[in-house]
Amino acid sequence: MSSTNSTNSMSSTNSTSRTYSIRTLARRGALVVAAGAAAFVLAACGGDSGGDDGGGAAHNAQDVSFAQGMIPHHRQALEMARLAEDRATSGAVKDLAAQIEKAQDPEIKTMTGWLKAWGEDAPGSGKGMDHSASGHSGMPGMMGGEDMAGLEKLTGKAFDTQFLTLMVEHHEGAVEMATVEKSKGRYGPATAMAGDIVTAQNAEIGQMNKLLGKNRG
Questions:
Q1: 7-10: which pairs have CB atoms within 8 A and are 24 or more residues apart?
Q2: pLDDT digits (tens, 9 = 90+) for 148-193
Q3: Cys-Cys with 117: which of 38, 55, 160, 209 at CB 3.0–4.6 Å?
């Protein structure tokens, strides 16, 4: 009788132990699944903030608009700057034109690369672009064909004055466009470039206004 009770007791203990082990493993399994789900959610949230790695990075319609607008805007500034090489009289105007070319040409290449990575159309290039009618004249500070044609005909001090007058307006337009990108853009490198444009071109506006004062004095 005692042997039977002992066997039954051991059997009950083993059964309880097995039940406990199964429950423990089930709880651990549930914790692992929950932890994995939490990690997935965190990773998804982190990925949504975007990065800087080309086509996979987060960007929005404002970033695309900024690049597609600023490329032709910069190209017109370069065209104006190149006119100064053999038309300007003032050394300061020639230096400023070279400074504009040095800063804006690489930015055009960078923005073109972004658009290609995003699968978006990059504005075409080429000399003799239409300054007036086809979509770009509505951008802030963009010169019309008449203004550009008039500038091409000038030389000497008259060129210097008109170049500075038009370029101040052109820069003010670029600052306006870049300010919108800073506040509404999502792609980090684009908003950073916009900040650089605001800083650099505001400084050049101040410089050009001083030169205009001297040129008109």
A1: none
A2: 999 999 999 999 999 999 999 999 999 999 999 999 999 999 999 9
A3: 55
Q: Which of 45, 46, 58, 44 is nearest to 189 (CA)?
A: 58
Q: What pLDDT digit, counting tens, does each position of 66-84 carry?
A: 999 999 999 999 999 999 9
Q: Residue by residue, what is the 3-state secondary structure of the chain?
A: CHHHHHHHHHHHHHHHHHHHHHHHHHHHHHHHHHHHHHHHHHHHHHHHCCCCCHHHCCCCHHHHHHHHHHHHHHHHHHHHHHHHHHHCCCHHHHHHHHHHHHHHHHHHHHHHHHHHHCCCCCCCCCCCCCCCCCCCCCCCCCCCHHHHHHHHCCCHHHHHHHHHHHHHHHHHHHHHHHHHHHHHCCCHHHHHHHHHHHHHHHHHHHHHHHHHHHHHC
Q: Say if pTM beats, i.e. exceeds, 0.90.
A: no
Question: Cβ contacts of residue 190 below 8 Å, gap of 6+?
Answer: 59, 63, 66, 67, 111, 114, 181
User: How does residue 109 score in pLDDT terms, banded at 50, 70 and 90?
Assistant: very high
